[in-house]
Amino acid sequence: MDTDNALETLIITRDDIAEIVAAVGHDHLMDEVISGLDAAFRAFDLREKVPIRDGFVIGKRRQGTLEWMPIMSRHEALIKMVSYSPENPLDRGIPTILATITLFDNQSGHLLAVCDGVVATALRTGAASALASRALARPDSETIGLIGCGAQAVTQLHALSRLSPVKRALVYDVDAKVAQSFLRRTAFLGLDVQVSPLDRVEAEADIICTQTSVAIGEGPVLTGTGLKPWVHINAVGSDLVGKTELPRAVLERSLVCPDYLPQAIREGECQQLPPDRIGPSLPELLQRAEEFSGWREKPTVFDSTGFALEDRVAVEVMLRQARALGCGTFLPVEYLAEDPQDPYSRPRTRARSAPRIRPVRQPRSLTERSS
Amino acid sequence: MDTDNALETLIITRDDIAEIVAAVGHDHLMDEVISGLDAAFRAFDLREKVPIRDGFVIGKRRQGTLEWMPIMSRHEALIKMVSYSPENPLDRGIPTILATITLFDNQSGHLLAVCDGVVATALRTGAASALASRALARPDSETIGLIGCGAQAVTQLHALSRLSPVKRALVYDVDAKVAQSFLRRTAFLGLDVQVSPLDRVEAEADIICTQTSVAIGEGPVLTGTGLKPWVHINAVGSDLVGKTELPRAVLERSLVCPDYLPQAIREGECQQLPPDRIGPSLPELLQRAEEFSGWREKPTVFDSTGFALEDRVAVEVMLRQARALGCGTFLPVEYLAEDPQDPYSRPRTRARSAPRIRPVRQPRSLTERSS
Questions:
Q1: What is the pLDDT of residues A140-176, one digit of tens each?
Q2: Do the interacting molecules here have an ipTM over 0.90?
Q3: In 3D, which of B10, B17, B26, B28 has the Cα closest to residue B116?
Q4: Do A340 and B70 touch (CB under 8 A)?
């Protein structure tokens, strides 16, 4: 352990994330999150209880949330704080989903790191859909339908394109301008992306992703008629009690796989189903893939509410890359007094030669400790 | 709003806290927290539901916790993350209680500030006991008994000395060295502080504070015999399901006032009482002080589990002082992309002249916005 930094906190900012993305590239970063998530889901103990996220309702129209998502691992505890404010892009020019991830040493309680969670959230949400689609969609799925073309749609299509032989995307948004700008935002993928009416999306897509900010009680966001018999749907937008995107009839005829069951029955599409009609969770599905492979020819749904396990994987990727690049900044956030039993004693100081704030070229591994 | 900093996060570090304490002084800082807390408790709507804190058990011996404590106010949401690791001082040379406070804008979800919570926690826990003691102890209380002489004991005695005519403190700790060092740690108070056997503490104190790290099931930490008939006890150490510090018989003959009832019945001394034997909460007590003034001559207990409302007051004091002193550092923590609907677009940048990381002399008010 680097004693100079041992009692400080590694801050990974917007600029560090930009440095990581620029150095590593979108594709490699997404691939790392996908493979990390695949491994984490396969290793996940299905009996493990993870706290269900909880939160506040926020915003003038009370359609937003601010939530905390905790998860414990062997050496660390993670708490992601994530907000959903659908009016952010138009009213404030900032993303609908904002997030910050905090990591703590689970022996001392020390705050190890504070990391942007906006990019991590977008990456891991896409990665989860890609893994679900690999397990449940036809292997020759070439046409993707996207309903809702905001920020999350970009990483949905990107992630799917990494695991499936995607050629075409048919995209729909209630805001035609947002659908149109999606072509520019995904130009880097080199796919045939077309703005389409909803009925065409439903009729032609092998895989559909819904990531809308439909309000509580105002769904569903597709009709559910004319779908391909083998359609796989990643329902990504459900994240509020009462908010759902899919018609109940679609769920009733599909194998519905939640990311984390206790959360999905509270705020996912699974709100619409009795417990005995819910299929295996995504971790279970990946652990017993062969058993469910027959469903590739039948309708399936991945009910993606967002699972803290996914955030852990994404932040591990970010911190590993930060370490490799030497980006990030250590700050002494917690007041650690010279005498730990005297909160009024002077703060521990760094070695005299260290500047007060500095970028660190060799941040210590936060996630791969041997002890 | 300072547009340059509007989408960044104010970080208040260990060094900033030290600067605030040095500039303002312990007494003034404590007085500000006490008066802020008094006002906040009087204004608190007793019907308001605050999420009960939840958390993980941590540590090798599983006697620690890492918890999250959320509370919403008019403009902001606060989440404190706080850990309790009783082996920290001896094993690691750091405080038992570590904490970090995060503040969010409750319209956009933006992370406004990350602030050390170690000092804020110590201050507000002392302040709460001082207010409870003013309401429930005899006004001429001159002798304070302290059981458990760690970091929290310092701010308990300090806070009590600001509101009561304290002359003497009798202090006891299972670790004699810790009791002895308490004299040095509280020398700044100019009081007659004596290490004492437990029975003398119990027999002579007008006000007793218990802030121990007794393990689950290993209490009580005092016998409850020979206490003064008007003794007021601040039971500060209970913060775990199963952990209690006081004998049930003491609780049964006292007016027991929790800080926040739903939490106290889960992890405070109130665990030991049936609901109909629990008195008014501290906010209720302060709102209806006259009604309970007769209890000053009778035994009373303040069941202090730690309430997020107290943290809000303490962080408001810290941020106000940081603003006045111009300390703190703005960092762009969240990845806010130029195009909010494209997580892969470049990050928003600052004005060209702004350095990447800098101390800010005029941080914007985070807690006193007019809008």
A1: 999 999 999 999 999 999 999 999 999 999 999 999 9
A2: yes
A3: B17
A4: no
